[in-house]
């Protein structure tokens, strides 16, 4: 059987090499030609993908000053009433991560999410995924939804759910008003911008449910907080969040 598998793999490698000669593939971030066993990114760029550096804010996963204590909360989290319990993020939103997410979102190439699939599956989330009753993707802005036919947050939620068979994803939140990107606004406008922007889209009973919100990029925790507020007002017992990437500050 092993012999058969090796033989099949060898044919696959020859086929890939043949296809690469006709249609060469290039690294998404540095443009160098890819080896047969490389996909989307060359090995060097893959090794350069930055990770968030500890210490992180225990509430919103923002990078904190070095030597901050393990229970440190950033100034943003100390200044707002947060409706989520705590958050986790995998990557800082810069360098290779920014290029890849830009290609996914603005060049509409969702298949590049596969680059992060392994990292998401290995992500050491503070709580095991199985402990959540529901995984809820942050909904897309209505305007952006019309521009692209997929929600990156939903695709990430699917990858998160795959790490725990039996977990349930429900797109129960809906964004009911289009708002300017949070990154374009100052802190006060960010909070006002999202007020009343989200609703529960189904008559789903979330009472006493533990919910994991999932988003692609957390620019400010204001979006997450507004979604968490909706869920908590509907009776959710606890809301945490997981984001693929995080910008430098709240
Ligand atoms: Zn490269
Ligand atoms: Zn924080």
Task: Put the structure in a nutshell.
With 250 residues, the protein is α/β, with parallel strands linked by helices. It has helices spanning 2-22, 43-48, 75-79, 95-106, 114-122, 142-147, 152-162, 187-193, 222-233, and strands spanning 87-92, 134-137, 173-175, 198-200, 210-218, 238-246. The longest helix has 21 residues, at 2-22.
Textual characterization of the structure:
This protein is α/β, with parallel strands linked by helices. The protein folds into 2 domains: 1-48, no CATH class; 54-246, Rossmann fold (3-Layer(aba) Sandwich). 36% of the residues lie in helices and 14% in strands. The protein has 9 helices and 6 strands, in the order αααβααβααβαββαβ. It has helices spanning 2-22, 43-48, 75-79, 95-106, 114-122, 142-147, 152-162, 187-193, 222-233, and strands spanning 87-92, 134-137, 173-175, 198-200, 210-218, 238-246. The chain has a 4-stranded parallel sheet with strand order 1-6-5-2. A two-stranded antiparallel sheet has the order 3-4. The longest helix is centred in the first third of the chain and has 21 residues, at 2-22. The N and C termini lie far apart (54 Å). One zinc ion is lined by residues 27, 29-30, 32, 41-42, 44-45.
